[in-house]
Structure formats: structure tokens, C-alpha cells
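The aim of this short unit is practical: by the end, you should be able to scan a pair of folded records and say something sensible about each. We start with the first protein, listed as its amino acid sequence and then its C-alpha cells.
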Amino acid sequence: MNTVKHSFYLLGLITIFSCSQKAKEPSILIKNTLDVARTFETVELTKQFLNIDDLSVIGIRDVETGQLQVTQTVDNDGDGIMDDILFQPQLAANSEKTYNIVKITASEKPKAPELCYSRFVPERTDDYTWENNKVAFRVFGPKAQKMVEDSVPGGTLSSGVDAWLKKVEYPIINKWYKKELETEGSYHEDNGEGLDNFHVGVSRGVGGIATKVDTTYYYSKNYAKWRTITTGPIRTSFYLEYDNWDAAGNTVKESKIISLDLGSNLSKFTTTIEGVNQIAAGLTLHEKDGEVTGNTTNGWVSYWQPHGDSELGTAIVAPKNTFLEFEKYDTVTKDLSNAYAHLKVENNQVVYYAGFGWKKSGQFNNKQEWETYLNDFSKRINTPLEVSLR
């Protein structure tokens, strides 16, 4: 009888302990202190912040609805261990929400299409291309540079950022390259999904950088090295490194991580740079038939222009403590006219966002809607969601 009582006593302790452990399930509180709703904003939770060793078995559950959120784990340094878990909460204006951190199996993890994608493209010289459900971009590599230097047709010598104008939410990178390289079609023609009719040349394109010495701008050549960091339903990111370049006798060392999140028209550029204390992130002025506008207080510069049979807005947005001023640089030399955002470098690093809105995609009808988007984007990056562990 004592044995039976003892067994029930132990069972009771185990049950109480299990309930207690369940009650102490970790959670996070997310606050939106702005008077606007927050959607398509990515929250990054590190394993150090959560005090969890293995993020691959972790889920994030909305306490109010009980729904598991779409998440993405990221290995930032390529060591095979996941460092961050990402998700995009939905918060009304001036509100807060609680999410539980739970253990889940692979079968329980919510499925979502991989709309944030990037890759190295060896079949088209050595482009590196990236996209999400709104926009797409590409940059050019060392082989394309050498072809120009060796007078081989088909190369590109530019550290500017090219824009691919898409008007569908599904991925187009692989489809467009296949059309260009394996069929008689071309990604320079719009067959309903959009097209590449954005000229870069040696301009800054959409977010390429330069440094100004006196009245002259200097910039790097093509990227020299690349590494894909992540692709997924929420973010794609990758690393680019450049050969050292000269700016009026100063040696400049440059590398960067570029990321693009679901729902955003702007890529994030986290640039590590030595040799300068300011950079200028640029937007090509193309035919100079558009309008440069800016807001120093909110930290953005924009160029809205006629483009083909439509209109196009490009922009640089930076945190207020980084954005110094903007400039319209107009010169007679082809492709060297750019709108520049002058940005402060601190501790050899500068962060800014660059991207575009194409009228024909249906996202923005006019310059006013585009600038409203930029002002709202500025609010969000300068007042990030507040995240606390509970």
C-alpha cells in the first residue's frame, strides 16, 4: 500500500512539474509604438537572446490565435549552426502581441513558398541576382569585368545595381535567365511578367556606392567574391567582397551583406568599408527627364522618372543618424549623373536601403504614393518593433 501511495505521489509530482514547465514556456512580447499598422517587418531572434541552443526545432506561436508562424532559420557565418530565427508578426497601430516559443517537429512547421531567393548565375557570365515578391536586382562579377578589360564582347564593368522590373509575386529569376539563354525569347521583352529594361552602365544604378573627394566621385569595379547566406520564405541575403580601390590616393576596402525581405521594395545594404568616413549611395538619372526629391529629416532621396511606357521611382533610405544630405549630381559624361545620398560611416560600417517601385507593377500609381511609402519606411526603420523576452 505504501508503495502504491509512493507511486501516486511521484506521479503527482511529475504531473505538477510538467505543468509547471509548460506554464514557464518562454515567450516574447512585441510592441508597435507607431500609429500605423506593421506588416512585412522581419523580427530577428538570436539563439543567445532566446537562450536556446538548437533553433531548428523551435516554433513561434501566436498566443491569441494559437497559430504557428512562418519562420526561417539563418546560419550567418556558414558554420552549419543556425544563428537566428526570423518571422514577420502582424501588429495593429499602437499595439502589442505575445508569442510563445515552442518546440515543434519538422512536420508541424508551417509551409510557405520560397519567394525570397538569390543565386550566383554562372551561365550568364557571373551575375549575382536576387528577388522577393515585389522586386528583383542583380550585380556583376569579376569575369564580366575582365571581358571588358580584355575587349571581349558581352562583358559589364560596373559596381552599380541593376533593377529587374517584375509585376508578378512568384519568382522569375530562373525563368527569365532560361528564356534569355535557352530560347529565342528575351528578358528585355515584357510577356506579362515584367522585363529588364533598366540601363546601368557605369552609373550607380539603384544603390551602388561611391566616395566624393573634392568634386569627383570614385567607386569600385565589379564584385570579386560572393557567398550566399540564406534564401527562404522571409529573407534572402548574401555577401559580396570587392578588390581594394583608389579614391584620390586613398585605398578603400569594401565588402557588404545585402538582404531582401518578403514584402519590401528596398534591399538592405550593410556595408563594411575602410579608408573613408562618408559614402554616397547613388541612383542613376538615366535620361535626366525625371525629378529628384528628398527628405533630409526622414533620411531619403528619390528619383521619379518616365520609364519606357510607364514610370519608375528609385530611392535610398537610411537611418536618420546616418543620412547627412542628398545631392543631384549632373554631368555631361554618359551614365555618371546620379542622385546621391551622403551617408556617415561609423566604426567602418554604414547601413542603408535601396530599391524601386514600378508603376506598371500596380504597386504605386504616382510619385506621391511612392514618397508616402518612403516616409512610412523611414518611420519603421527609425522606430523598430520592440522585442522583449518574458
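Turning to the second protein, read its sequence before its C-alpha cells, just as you did above.
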Amino acid sequence: MRHFCQLEQSVLNRLFLRVPQPFGDADHRDRLAVALGATLYVPATRSDLTATIMRRAGEGVMSMVLDLEDAVADDEVEKGLRNAVATLDELAARGAAPMLLFIRVRTADGIDRIASVLGAGVQVLTGFVLPKFTADSGRGFLDAVSGASERLGKTLYAMPVIESTSVVHRETRDDELRAISQLLAEHRPRVLAVRIGATDMCGAFGIRRDRDLTIYDVRVIVDVIADIVNYLGRTDGTGFVITGPVWEYFADHERMFRPMLRATPFAEHDAVLFRQQLVSRDLDGLLREIALDRANGIQGKTVIHPSHVAAVHALSAVTHEEFHDAVDILDTDTGGVQASGYGNKMNERRPHRTWAQQTLLRASVFGVTNKGVTFVDLLTALVDR
């Protein structure tokens, strides 16, 4: 598996100083978590699930969740479970996995059921997404993932989704996050990443954010996200990769506010019409939310439409400037301050060291762009292909 695999080699050479490197289930957990990128959710009941996975892999989707929870009606869960298992077995018969594949179950029993009937498909299964994860329900989920791993003879990862009211409500949040943190620490080797379920969080207050706003404009929810990152996203060895919440919109609409996408980068790259196309498809809000995810310590994102994948991945590639700043910062561990080679900032070696390490980890899976190449160039290449 490799990001931007849908681009021709000549395009990769034009865009990248260092092309993205392959990754897979056997990689270190931290690298695999960063490699998730845009994780596309698809109902496990789809009749053409195998063909859909193969098609999306060819379009650059590198992680997908076969959903048995919110995307599936109550009376179709059993059908979806059988279909997911059959799909995994069919993909395994074709050879190596085309992407990182997960199943989102409803209950811990669902994990046990899948483990009891899954055959060769375990070869292409990366793990399970655990919805509405709490300190009370979480232990059963994590024990089930451990049990499935032992039964099937493969390390299977867990991705808990933090979205319950015990985290959303202010009076219970600290105790709940502290308990979740302790529980996840007990199962650290098994936890790939922590996902944020902002839609359920908004539902607790009867909120549905407008497409002219990002989740960071919804104050009651951004407070929850900040606390999740504070408890679970620390870089001192106690935290995990936190992935961004879903962007719900992908169709044209009448706008109330001005577009959130600055015109200047597109004018500089002779892509003004391309900017208009992005705005018309509501991708300007998505691009801004991705940038704010990164600014708030979040990597990767849940997506529900394939058109969103290119935006997430274009903004995940490490720029030439970021890469050289990171290399300079890690060049010595003696501390001190040095002007960036770009002449526009100061690099402080000790406070910026963790940022630099994370940047080089991201560079290994998303690549380093050539000097002067921006997300506009990447997004244009991905969308126009």
C-alpha cells in the first residue's frame, strides 16, 4: 500500500522531492496510525462491496471501515456481518490487501461472531472500530479484540470512537476521560488510533453544524475535542494518534457566508476556476477543517464521501519547508535556536523536537513535496486525473 498510488510516476516526480513510501499491517503502530489518512466509511450491506473496495483503492483510498453500526438498519445487521466476512474472504483470495480494512461493530459480541466465522479474510483485516466507547463498555470491546487476535493468529487493532454523553457532558467529562485513558493504556499495543465522533456529540445538544461552519466553530463541541486531545493525544508516550471528525457535506447549496478558501494560492497557481469548483462542492469548508484539525493536534479524518479523500491527503503531504525545518531541528539535540532556512521563522530545537519527529513520520507515508509545490498542485493532480 502506498499513498498517491493513483498518480503516474512522472506526476509523482514533478510533485515530490521524496515520494510516499509503502506501508502495511506489519509496520510500527505509530506509523500505521499516521498512514490511515482519510478513512472512508461504507455500509457493510452493499451488494458490490468487494468491487467498491477495489475501485476505491485504485482511486487512492488507503483505509476503509465496513460499517455495521449507524450506516446499517437494525434488521440488516446480520446480513451486513455475513457480507463483510464474505468480502474479506474474497479479497484474501485475490492476494494482498488493497488498503487498511476495519469493521465497525455494534457490540463486543459482534467481534466474537466475526472471529468465529472469518476464514482467510483475516489476512486483509486490520482491526475493528469500537463505537460509543466508554470506560464501562470499553473493556469488553478491547478484550474481544484481544480474543479475536489470539483466535485468528494475527494482531488486530482497535480504534475506539469517543462520542458518548459521558464525555460530552461537562460534569462527567474529566472522570470519564481519565478512566478511558487508563483503560487504553492497559491495551496500548492493541490501540491504533482514537477517533472522534462529533456527529453524536452534536446530537446530544440537538445541533447539526451548517456547511458554512467547521466543527471548530461549534464551541460546545470544540471544548470536548480539546479535552480529548489533552487526555488522549499527549506526545509524552502516554497518548495516541487522534483522528478528525467527519465532514458531512458534499453537494452544492446556497451560501450564507463567503467561501472559506483563500483565493491567493489558486491565483498564484493559475487555478482560479479550480477553486470555484471546490467551493461549489463544499470542499472549501472541508479544507479549512482539515487545517484546523492539524492545528489542534489531530491527524487523519473520518470521511463519508470519496470526493473528500483527495483533500485530506493533499493536506497531509509534508511540504518542502516543513521537511527542511524538521531536519534542521533534529540535526542536534543540544538545544538552542536557529533561523529557518526559509528565513521566515525561528526553529527552537527542544520545544519543536516532537513536532519535527512527527513531521518526518508523516513524510515517510505521505511524502515530501518539491519546493514551490503546494496543496493546490497536489489537489489539482488528484482531482483532474
